[in-house]
Each structure stands twice: as C-alpha cells, then as structure tokens.
C-alpha cells in the first residue's frame, strides 16, 4: 500500500468519543464518568486501534451507574445509585468540545436508580430503582436540563424464592415500539411491570404484569419486530433473566380498544451459553438489539469461560474472560444461537454498539476496563479485540458511544 493511500485512510479514520461510568474506588467517596477517545487505526488484530481516557468528571456521586445520551445536543444524563448518601440523584451534564463534562443540574431521587428511559416524545423520563424497590417519573424542562418529579411507585410485592429476591428490585425501564407503554423487569419479584402512558400528562397507569417463572430474576429486556421499521409485523419481547441465566421470548399483543394493557405469550426459553452447560455462579446482565435489527446480544458475568491475551500489550500473561452471547431472532419470535464470544475481562455489566454495528464496546466491571471488539454485521459474530482502556478509575458499569 503506498504512502498516499495510507495517509488518506488515516485522515478518514477520525477519533470517536465514548463515555463510561466508574464506581468509586475503595477509600473514595466519588465515582467518575470517564471520557475516552477511540482512534480506529488501519490494521486488524489485537491493539490495532487506540482507546485513551482524556478526562474524568466526579459530579455524579459515589456510584454513577447509567448514562443516557438519547436526547442529543451537548447534554448527557447520569444516575447515581447513592450507596454512600441518604438519597440518590439524577444529574444533567454538559459536554464540552474537548469531551470534558460539567454538571449543570442535579435532582435527589429515591435510592438505587439503575436505568433511565425517556418517553412521551422526550417530555418525561422514567427510572427503575433496584435498591429503592421503586419506579419514578419526571417531567423534562423545555431546554432539557432540569427535571420536575411526577410520580413514585413503590412495591412490597412478595419477593421471589432466591436470597437475592428479598425485595422488589426493578432493574430496567423500556419503552415499547408504539410509545404507549413502559415496562420494568423486576428481578426481585419475578415480574415485568407494565404501565400505560397518558400522552397529555406523562402520568402512568399500571396494568397487569408479565409473570416470569419463579427464581428467574428478569433483569433487562428489549422489544423486537422482524423487518426494519416495519410497524405491520408482530412485536416480540425478549427478557434476559439474571438468576436463571436464560433468555425468554414472548409474543406481544396490544389491546384492541386502546384502553387495556399488553398481553404476552411465551414462545421460547433458552440458555445463554449455547450448547454449553451454564457455569455455576453465572449472572446474566445486558441485552441489546444490533443496529441492523438482525441480532440480539446478551452479556454473562462471573463465569470466565475464555482465556485471552492480556489487554496490556506489555504483559504477556493471559487473563480469564466472561462472555457475550449472540442470537439470531426469526420472524416467529424464536432465536437461534450464533456465538459465545469473550467480553474482554470480568463482569461485563454493560455493552453498546457503535452506530453502524461494526464495533461493540464492553464495560468489564471487575477488570476496570473498556474493551472494543470488531463485529461482522452480516454474520453477527464478534471478531478480534481492537482496543482496550485499562486501569480506569473504578469498576466500569456503563459505556456509551458519542457519535455525531
């Protein structure tokens, strides 16, 4: 390859920004949001690209847990679980041109928020509170910077049979494709809670919950329909269950009169390790649909089923790795196992795709790393690890791309 072509490729491979949340390290009262610059590079294989921390913000409390970049502009939202304070918080931060962050608003909330979901065309946001056994909602200001409390739903539902299910633990907030319903997988109560949305007020109306199998611990969920942006096809719900380490799919039915809740018919229930036996202690975590709508990916924590190269190129000692699972959903709502792939380290609590689905960024919580893997959009399979950011300020639990 001649020098002119190399120079042209280098100029087109511009840096991309990511943000990652880090829990407070031991003996510290503050967690952080780390800004990372990813330079794609030109080659293939391990460390063919670079991923470097460029700044860190400590204005999201001791336990920054979830980032939301869906409202665009120069704003990003961060929730603090509030482990070391009487209350948790919802924080608005402004992104500077250099990627550094500055908090511009903060609101105290019920303890233990772990997920946000904007709804009603961005007029409001809902949060799932694992530690507070609650769901809360807030109205967003016109300039998208501040929040006004709307509703608080707290639950004393009889918990599930596992020790981890001593109370209700809502873990995820998800908007359905029509924008009319919100669902909240509740790990502690073995249900997925369902609410209708009042488009005039953003208030929620509770409907009958989807009941999971006992001791399944539904954690996160995604809606999916075959065909891209095709509203005439059937809608399905895929729930990843943390305690059973299984993926359950349901056909979704909508009320004919427009006034009722959602109906669910179970279609399939599969393990997350393909033809392998689920390792003892494994804990399922995240689930996401690929940008092209063709694949579903989940993450598996606390089970080092792979041995891979050290992300530090100066260290030849191999490391253990947890995993990501790739499934191919069919038009009938059932899935086919495609691949079990390494996550890059220990406890992959969260991952996200870049815009075109060619890369996956994984936050390996207990390894203090963000690892980026190449992905083949056609096959859905993950390939080589192209970059890692190691030695981050604390345990990594959420990572999002910031592509303009």
From TrEMBL:
Query: What Pfam families does the entry give?
Result: Lactonase (PF10282)
| Gene3D superfamilies, per database record | YVTN repeat-like/Quinoprotein amine dehydrogenase
Q: Where is the signal peptide?
A: 1-15
For this UniProt record, give its keywords in alphabetical order, as a comma-separated list.
Signal
Asked whether the keyword Transferase is assigned, the reply is no
* Residues annotated as transmembrane: none
Gene Ontology MF: a single term: 6-phosphogluconolactonase activity
Q: Which family does it belong to?
A: Belongs to the cycloisomerase 2 family.
| Protein known as | 3-carboxymuconate cyclase
């Amino acid at each position: 390859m001649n020098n002119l072509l190399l120079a042209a490729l280098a100029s087109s491979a511009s840096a991309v920004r990511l943000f990652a949340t880090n829990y407070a390290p031991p003996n510290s009262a503050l967690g952080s949001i780390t800004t990372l610059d990813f330079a794609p590079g030109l080659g293939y294989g391990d460390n063919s690209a670079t991923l470097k921390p460029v700044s860190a913000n400590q204005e999201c409390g001791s336990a920054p847990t979830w980032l939301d970049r869906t409202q665009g502009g120069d704003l990003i939202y961060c929730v603090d679980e509030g482990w070391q304070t009487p209350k948790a918080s919802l924080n608005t931060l402004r992104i500077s041109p250099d990627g550094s962050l500055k908090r511009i608003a903060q609101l105290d909330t019920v303890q233990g928020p772990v997920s946000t979901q904007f709804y009603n065309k961005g007029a409001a946001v809902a949060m799932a509170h694992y530690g507070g056994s609650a769901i809360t909602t807030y109205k967003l200001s016109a300039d998208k910077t501040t929040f006004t409390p709307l509703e608080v739903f707290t639950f004393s539902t009889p918990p599930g049979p596992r020790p981890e299910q001593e109370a209700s633990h809502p873990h995820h907030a998800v908007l359905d494709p029509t924008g009319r319903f919100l669902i909240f997988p509740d790990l502690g109560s073995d249900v997925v809670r369902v609410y209708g949305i009042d488009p005039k007020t953003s208030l929620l109306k509770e409907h009958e919950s989807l009941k999971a199998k006992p001791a399944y611990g539904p954690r996160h969920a995604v809606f999916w329909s075959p065909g891209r942006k095709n509203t005439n096809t059937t809608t399905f719900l895929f729930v990843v269950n943390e305690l059973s380490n299984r993926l359950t799919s349901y056909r979704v039915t909508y009320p004919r009169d427009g006034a009722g809740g959602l109906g669910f018919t179970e279609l399939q229930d599969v393990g997350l390790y393909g033809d392998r036996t689920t390792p003892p202690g494994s804990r399922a975590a995240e689930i996401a649909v690929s940008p092209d709508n063709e694949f579903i990916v989940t993450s598996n924590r606390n089970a080092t089923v792979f041995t891979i190269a050290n992300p530090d190129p100066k260290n030849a000692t191999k490391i253990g790795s947890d995993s990501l699972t790739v499934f191919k959903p069919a038009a009938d709502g059932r899935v086919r196992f495609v691949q079990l792939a390494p996550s890059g380290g220990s406890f992959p609590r969260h991952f996200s795709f870049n815009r075109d689905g060619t890369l996956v960024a994984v936050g390996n919580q207990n390894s203090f790393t963000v690892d980026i893997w190449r992905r083949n959009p056609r096959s859905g399979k993950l390939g080589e690890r192209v970059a890692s950011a190691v030695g981050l300020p604390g345990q990594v639990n959420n990572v999002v791309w910031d592509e303009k």
